[in-house]
Amino acid sequence: MAYEDAKHRPHAIHTGEEPRNPITNGPESLSVTLDRWGPVESLFTSMYDALQANWGEQPSRTVDAVCMCADDRHYDDWPHQTGWCRLTSDQKSYVEACFAGKTLQQVLEGITFDFCVDGVSRAFTHQNVRTRLGAGFMQHGGRDNDWRHRAWTMPETMRRMCEAWEHDLGAKGLVSQTLANEYLKSGEVEDGLKHSITNWMPIVNYMIGRTEPDVANGAHQQTLSEAIAEHINNGRILYSVLVDAGIPWQDARRVLFMGMQTYIHDQYNYLALSGMLANRLEHVMDWEHNCVAQLMLREIKMKCPPLLSKYLGSHSDKAKTARFAGLESWPPDGKWPSPYEWCYECGHHKANHIAHPDTNDVTICEVCERDGRYANGTVVPRISSVHAYVGRDSLPRQHRPEQNPYFVLHPDSMSGGPIVWIPTNGTYPWDQLT
């Protein structure tokens, strides 16, 4: 029997075409759009009425209340649409208490957000779809489309590696282990940014002899970025050959790379979104997912009433302490104090050190002072209570900070301005934000 097509739009078909090899760096390809959120109509009044269900003889009906706006409001004003202007001050406080987690939160499951996320890698989407409750996903298909032209994302660690190689080491022909590591000992590549390479010899061995014909000069010493681009392109070519030969897309895709870019539609209710953002806004998370989470929060701030974004943030932002510092895979990002960090001088927490009234160079450790470690000469202490705070991480870490050079969205961008990313060396860029 014949099967009628499901009326979807056409497949992406590129049979016989030579694959292009687009490569983008870091977060420059990312695009997040909040396409829909709601319900907008009577949102806050219906929330308040539901929150009052435990008390009273009859249902609460602020949804039927009269608008209390002092001036003329247009229909598209969010206070009027959401019913915010029909609530008293006490009623508004009660609704906010729900967002703040101070009362029952079931009604927050009724608030939904639909995002379109584009320019992300398959590595990202594998993590993105892990939210199981209160979320749904519809993703660009690899079994229903030809992917030969899809862009590939260059991670920042690899971009900095290529820059260090091409501007310094590779250009100077430093092909020995000693010379290579000594020459790039500082690890800096540009503007204070650092690469994460500690042993150049594997790369040196890989790059030795990688030459290609040059019509004008006879031979060309391949750069590291060119070697990566060639590797990605070879994968595209193999994929294209397989597809053109008759291998279905769903099987040919297995020779492609996790860094190939795709798009996905995410739907969350408020509680699911809050939980996901609390995790992914932590900078010790995968940098790409962290960037997407920042862009999601930016969209909510731009398009929704302030109350919907007011209580969204990372676990650490909410607690004002590094909540993920106990995970030994990654060092804390430095945005908030770590409970596993101790002063190298005296062994006490950073929270015990207060600013010295006369100088910014040293602090006063309240614990040392309480224990009798005075600097006035009346007691001979093991160490003075007045000393510089030198932080020391007390846990072993699998990775170093520069191995996770995440990006921070500029505060003006988060407020609705053009998107500007601040690159880091794996620690929070307080000096660039203050």
What can you see in these coordinates?
- With 434 residues, this protein is α+β, with helices and mostly antiparallel strands.
- Among the domains are: 40-110, no CATH class; 153-255, no CATH class; 321-332 and 399-433, no CATH class; 341-393, no CATH class.
- The protein is 32% helix and 15% strand.
- The chain is built from 16 helices and 17 strands.
- It has a 4-stranded antiparallel beta sheet with strand order 2-3-10-4.
- α1 (43-51) crosses α3 (89-99).
- The radius of gyration is 28 Å and the shape is flat.
Question: What is the fold's blueprint, element by element?
Answer:
Layout: E1 23-25, E2 31-38, H1 43-51, H2 78-82, H3 89-99, E3 112-121, H4 122-128, E4 135-139, E5 152-154, H5 156-169, H6 177-183, E6 188-190, E7 193-194, H7 201-207, E8 211-212, E9 220-221, H8 224-245, H9 249-252, E10 261-269, H10 270-280, H11 287-303, H12 306-310, H13 315-319, E11 341-343, E12 353-355, E13 363-365, H14 366-370, E14 386-387, E15 391-393, E16 407-409, H15 411-414, E17 421-423, H16 430-433
Parallel strand pairs: 1-5
Antiparallel strand pairs: 2-3, 3-10, 4-10, 6-7, 8-9, 11-15, 12-13, 13-14, 16-17
Helix pairs in contact: 1-3
Strand content: 15-25%
Overall residue-averaged pLDDT value: 89
Work out the helix count: 16
Approximate helicity band: 25-40%
Shape estimate: flat
Number of strands: 17
Radius of gyration: 28 Å
Kindly, what is the distance between the CA atoms of the first and last residues, rounded to a whole number of angstroms? 69 Å
